[in-house]
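Changelog-adjacent note: as of this version, every example in the card shows the full chain rather than a window. The one below runs 197 residues end to end.
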Amino acid sequence: MRRGALAAGLALFPLGWAASSVTVGAWAMTGHMVAHMIAVAVAAPLVAFGVQGTRADPAGRWPRAATPSAAALIEAIVVWGWHVPALRRLVHDHPGWLVVEQASFLAAGLLLWAAVLAPRHRMAGVGALLVTSMHMTLLGALIGLAPRPLYGHGGVAALADQQVAGVVMLLIGGIAYLVGGLVMLGRLLQHRGEAPA
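Full-length structure tokens:
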């Protein structure tokens, strides 16, 4: 099961990269957001589950950085940083930066999911995922509800693209982390209920 998750996560990451690189012009921001969400909310948890407990597990290799709170902070800085209009423009205008952007999304997502999946961090992991869900939802709402294009040169098409991108972040990002946090909370409560009195 872990090998299948790892293979799926590694296969999905290039799919997101392709989505980001082929959607140009009117839908460039939406393509970017699809790629971003595939990296942090789909590929990263699959890869983290696939490498859990192995030598490649970030939670085992870097225990100080792979605490849920530290990993959530790193992931938030990476996500919010790449959505600053100047950095978004840099990636759009210089495709070589797409590699750096997408790799940093995957690395930050992998670090976070590895940290929250580590058995020693179950309760803190729940909190980190729920906080991440909230900041993803907030960023998605800010992008989607902005009254003017933040990432384009204006026009109805740029604003529509940005609105769809915000919805993609709200739906995939917010929901993935919320569901992950709730599943972990359910398992934690079940484990505590089964513990001998």
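Structural remarks: The first helix runs from residue 2 to 22.
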